[in-house]
Amino acid sequence: MSFSVHNQQRIALSRFALTILENDCMLFGCVDRTNSKPSRHKFINRIFCNFYDRADASIEMRLAETRDTYQGLKPKKWTKEADDFLNSVLEKKEEELTQKMEALLSADCVTTSDVISLNKETINILEHSREDIFYPKGPSKYIRAILEEYALLDALMREKMYFRENIEKLEHFAHNRAVVGITLSGRSRFHQVIPVLIRPDVYQTHLYLAGLSRGAGAEGRPVSYRIDHIDSIQCIRPESMFPLATDDLEKAISQRGIQYLTGVKSRIRILLSPEGIRKYQQYTYQRPSYSSIEGDAKNIYVFNISEYQAQVYFFKFGADAVVLEPKSLRQTFCRLYKKALSKYESS
What we know:
12 helices, 44% helix
């Protein structure tokens, strides 16, 4: 048996799940290319297709996994007692999963008139599914269970599910030490890199691809890119003969943070006011370590970091952090502050 599927499904969600889905749709850039508005249809189809085979809501799949695990341990002589034990394990597993889904689906739904258009991949999955045994009222209940379970995942796991295709592709290329070309959202520049690993930053806010650059003049330099910023991935060479200094990459990640591998390190001098020093001591999130402190008043902090990292951390300090050098970073701060001021003056 399988679901009888119509490509238009009315899916009501709990307020919590609806809020998570709407926020993630914006955060992950799932927008309609024609009007740049969030595309709920596209987002729900993608989450369902990327998550259904890992979700507990796919009860029949989880039972089949459990059955295969035990039968894989099957000795040459498989007794009736072993069969009885396996059946009792499966019955217990089914009871646990069914109760979990009943609890998920018991939450009050937000009244909505939205009808979701299912794409071909989602329809194909449903038509070949055996989950109708547990969702006899139709595929909309099954889809809702998948989405409600997705909403309970932490932010990093939800990011992994949405970008699963790119992540698995990059992990495959990393295993084969392939050379790939990637482009970033909203940018045309083509980056050549050997993927090595995918890991969140130390604060568990975003996932990053870390690898070694293959660009001219930057051979073997550690680089990193946020997974949600990667727009396209193209294999250039299926295998690389380039020796991978993974220890150096790990060292760079440890010293600089995975989010700041890209970019040349510079000697950066920041003049901090007493309030700026207090902020530097208090704001630990993404705080760079200084290499020395200069000046008679011990208020000039020196860093050996990328200009981008300095900009991300110190820009919020306003007048309490003045860039002394390099000149390029000082000009960047001036330009951004002036731009913000002009917006306030014009409004």
